[in-house]
## 1
Amino acid sequence: MVTRPRRTRDVAAPVGTKVSILIVDDDPTKRFALRSILEPVGENVVEATSGADALRQLLRGDFAVILLDVRMPVMDGFETAQLVRQRPRSELTPIIFVTALDQAETDMERGYDLGAVDFVFAPVVPAILRAKVSVFVELYRAQQELRRYRLQLEELVQERTTALTAINRELEAFSYSVSHDLRAPLVAFDGLSKTLLEDYGGQLDKRAKEYIERMRLASQRMTSVFDGLQTLFRLTGGEIRREQLDISSIAGQIVDEIRSENPERHVEVDIASGMTAVGDQRLVRILLANLISNAWKFTGESSAPKVWVGQEMVEGARRIFVRDNGVGFDMISAHRLFGAFQRLHSQSEFPGAGIGLATARRIVNRHGGRIWAEGAVSDGATFYFVL
Ligand SMILES: Nc1ncnc2c1ncn2[C@@H]1O[C@H](COP(=O)(O)OP(=O)(O)O)[C@@H](O)[C@H]1O
Ligand SMILES: [Mg+2]
């Protein structure tokens, strides 16, 4: 488990410590009276002799509640309250105004406007003041507790994420080196089978030669699985560099490449013009190549194969899609499509390693986007993505 040093600045005071109450009054007798009334509450009472002094105290520490005298020379209670509210540290600290009963009506209106949460009237009734202050002290404690839980949770999530990321990295590095190391003997195996056929083919009968051919095909298939895995782990591991991409032109280049590799196939391709997206050039190219080559492959049995690359606006969000009129798939299995090695079609009908869509999903995830598919058996498929 990876542990980080605890953040000290943000951590709330531990349970059981006293909370502070600020009394602001220019009159020492009244301050003394308030302090005596609050003594039984059992918390830490701090005195400020003026508005300016109160602001100084608020810079030094957090208070559960402020008892603020309305009538003070230089800076009165209202002005003080306004400044208290302007400071981030005390913008939410409850303020109880202390005012004379005969001023109550006018003071209350202004006081509430300035962010007072309560009033007590002089002469102060001790039981009422204690009850009011206790409510805010309890509230403050509850908030502190919540904050402590939140910080603990955040730390826990952070620790778990770091640990998981490390495990993930290790697993990926492991899979990468396994697929890398196993690839070499496979290539040797294929090469030797080829030599065997070329040099000793004359001494073998038809059946033996067929067996060797099948061994070669199997080893080639496995090599392509390893290649796919390496693409999955290597190409999608590094940093992503976002830039404005011309999706229409990238799609066009991919189709040209596929077409030149498969001159025997006649597939009609319709690419919408002017499609753009912001993403990592290299990764988005791999994403599109996987989707388009699938569309190309899975239309292999269609009488008039057609592939569309286009975009749609749905509820203000733009999605790009690759659609084909090929064999399609059963929507019941749609959730499996994007898993590594998951294939819904047989190897004999449509060969493949089953890594293309897993790679596609990883690329989209790395961009913080979404990819999904719609299709029906014998009725084509559409793959949508948003980057
Ligand atoms: N355009 C498509 N039409 C129908 N099925 C598709 C299409 N694209 C992907 N699939 C299904 O998803 C599976 C996984 O695709 P992918 O990961 O690219 O692997 P592969 O192409 O090697 O089969 C495919 O084997 C196929 O069953
Ligand atoms: Mg594929």
## 2
Amino acid sequence: MLLTVLGYYGGYPYKGIGTSGYLLRDDDFNLLIDCGSGVLNELSNFISPTDLNAVVLSHYHHDHTADVGVLQYNWLAAKKPEPLPIYGHTQDFVNFAQLTSEGASKGIAYNDYEPTEIGPFKFEFMRTIHPVPAYAMRITKGDKTIVYTADTTYFDGLVDFAKGADLLITDTNFPEDVTGRKWHMNTQESGTLAKDAGVKRLLISHLPQTVDSQTMLEQSQKYAGNIPVVSAFAELEINV
Ligand SMILES: [Zn+2]
Ligand SMILES: [Zn+2]
């Protein structure tokens, strides 16, 4: 599996870098995970957006869905014979309904009680703790696994869900000194999660615009122990 980070900021894009979006490629299958602000533009540097085979959305906050509408226009203009499948949860019917657009895309529901096969990948979902319903994803192909926490506060269930993953992608929106009640993880929680889950590699993402990325990386590494931590600002393409 080849993972390409298309945007790694939380909340809003900044200086040419978008919010959450990850292109996952394998067996000629092109899958987009989250479709934040600036993601469609970046995606076109790697593949034609109309060569996507599917999109999976973790939740319906704008920093994960801002470019869905323009992606639908892109598909509409291309007059593709089949609509683009966009997978989303149905805990919010208004937003789920937007995933279907005549001549462009079709919304498909996922849930957290059975795996969903999408192309060559098996997806398992787990509800996270966030102000709106959001789902972490465990993606398996053969003996390789990628886990994406999506947006979430830290909770113990993440450790089991991420167990032994080859790559863990975490919502690391805060430095270590931001503690208390919050809807994202800080560097300490991301690093500790990676260590406790025994993952092979940690990718910190959903980063803040106001803290130097190198600082975020060094803090996460301190808590992850000997597990290598990478950040999308340095490493955009990761082979899993
Ligand atoms: Zn977010
Ligand atoms: Zn969110």
